[in-house]
């Protein structure tokens, strides 16, 4: 059984990551979304087990110490982590998983699972990112400035990612993400069993004939 | 200047390689096609400088010995080779080149240019390939049997290729080839200059402000 693909997407806050993740999940129904664990509180509209698993600091530490997290990071005062079991079960069953995490987390994943596919999404400009952050009216001025600073830092740290998408128009960015996913399914390492199937089938035929 | 992509496609004879190459060139006008040199005679409808450059054995040997060929192979009694200058000029100018060669040639390319992108195209079954070879009515029985034998050999030798496309339906196979090309354009190594552009622009802004 060929293992599934672990597709990791990261983007600065306001970079359109969540929209792209939802868009890809809609286009590719068999793709599973890995729900992260966090110590931050749910925002308006967020649901337990859909957007995140919300836990206390103590619960998070317990999971971390028990090795239950594939990666974890401390971002803007809260912990975020990826449950290991869900992903490993899916991948071993040959199913693909989408992971939406920050650059620190992505780098940890790449270190432990070099075959993971990491996609970094950037805004067309820092001004565009700033506009998006202001338009969604979720953050005060200090938070916006902190997010912008962190965005630059993340862009500088993204060089170990495999692919880069410039999120100028969301539809185009989604098409690109879909192309990357499609192309990765065709990688020789993952698709080679098809050659063997064609060859074996013909050997069978030769035996029958 | 980021170097262009060298996209190599290979397929067993009758595998649909030529149709896919033409289809991709039509979808991506800036992509250039590398015309090979051969010692075989033009088939009906083939044009000098479009399908191949037709040369004598002596002329071929001269090019080969002068290092003018990026790769060459002896297939079914004839020499085939890829002119080096055309490709190197295009790639250095940041333009992408499509190369349609056999597996021996592809392996030579990969050895000398590991950043080349190699796509191998297989038929859905050996029977389908045999049917296609018979349907085009170009070959006698001995030639068909030789092509089938060689097809199996090429499939076995294709493991150093980067991607595999099963050519079941030609439109779908073309979409897949297009996805691979699109994804490769987004590889971090090739696209990273975009991040720097976004960051530098913002540094400029910081200076101005």
Report the count of strand segments of chain A: 9
- Helix tally of chain A equals 8
Order of helices and strands of chain A: EHEEEHEEHEHEHHEHH
**SS-based structural class of chain A?**
alpha/beta
Strand content of chain A: 15-25%
Largest interface: A-B, 38 and 38 residues
CATH homologous group name of the domain at 6-34 and 96-208 in chain A: P-loop containing nucleotide triphosphate hydrolases
What's the rounded overall pLDDT mean of chain A? 91
How would you describe the oligomerization state of the chains in this entry?
homodimer
Q: Could you tell me the CATH topology label of the domain at 6-34 and 96-208 in chain A.
A: Rossmann fold
Low-confidence stretches of chain A: none
The top level CATH class name of the domain at 6-34 and 96-208 in chain A: Alpha Beta
The helical percent of chain A reads 40-55%
* Named CATH architecture of the domain at 6-34 and 96-208 in chain A: 3-Layer(aba) Sandwich
Note the main sheet of chain A. Answer: 5 strands, parallel
Radius of gyration of chain A: 19 Å
Distance between termini of chain A? 30 Å
Strand order of the largest sheet of chain A: 2-7-1-8-9
Shape of chain A: globular
